[in-house]
Amino acid sequence: MPARTIAERDALARPAEAQREHERRLVADHYEHNPEIFAMVLGRELLYSTGAFLHDDDDLDTAQDRKLARVAAKLDIRESETLLDVGCGWGSILLHTAQHTSGRVWGVTLSARQREVALARAEACGVSDRVRIDLAHIDDLTLAPESVDAVVFSGSIVHMHNRESVYERVACALRPGGRLLVSDCFFPQQVRGNREGRATEYIFVTALGYCRLLSLSEELGLMERAGLDVLHVEDLTRSYVLTVNRWIDNVRRHRDRIDALAPGFAQILQTYMTIGRLSFHRRSALEYMILAVKGHPRVQVGAWPIPSSLA
Hints:
The chain is of the alpha/beta class and 311 residues long. The chain has a single domain (6-294), classed as Vaccinia Virus protein VP39 (Rossmann fold, 3-Layer(aba) Sandwich), CATH 3.40.50.150. Helix content is 46%, strand content 16%. The chain contains 12 helices and 7 strands. The protein has helices at 6-12, 16-31, 35-42, 60-75, 92-100, 112-125, 163-173, 198-207, 216-225, 237-253, 255-261, 265-281; strands spanning 82-86, 104-109, 131-135, 148-154, 174-186, 229-235, 286-293. The protein is globular, with a radius of gyration of 18 Å. The N and C termini lie far apart (38 Å). Residues 307-311 have low confidence and may be disordered.
């Protein structure tokens, strides 16, 4: 695939091992900031991906609760099953799964501070006996064939350059009937705006270390070539605009405290989020949640048990 951005072109010039270490080092930098900052900005659930808004005036926590319920319904973790969350952040999906199912959860993050917070949250919730979190890049993992029942990438797949390899490993590791869920950002197939401009580089490099956005059709194609079947695609672009609106409001509200904890970081957050919000508002970037399966699906797409109080 041709490079779309300066960051992607630079990644293509690196050997695979060098790119992996580039991601390990630079992506982690953003998430190593004081967890108190992200708690102030992201809301109660510490979920660093889009919420699911039904109404423009929904509050952030309601939208994130709805997103977690939707993810849980699609992953459909049952007794004795294992969920692997790659790029698990501060543990939001892992903890929700552990609290609402009897499955086991395994998280992976590049950030030592995220791991520390997620494990502490698991202990506080009383589910630490079913929660494992590794400090690792996905390439470091030993994934035995047919060893996990579901894999989720929520706001994390964009940080991984070598997607072809990622999906091949995931497909091999999933048991028959296993589910893959990806919730993340994409470019439209039609070029809208300047993808090699300073604004894009600010988000992809200055703020977040490394990002690679594909088009939806390219991402789905990689999943299918790995042997997975796509069950459902949901456009959450409007929800992401509303989510980022709430994040920016929180940055402004807590700016003095953020600057006290990490001088200059409030400006980085507000700048990259403002650029990103405009991109999604103009649909020069898009947000999708994708569900794919290995083999025969056991879920009916029209019958996910999303709680009525959150629907």
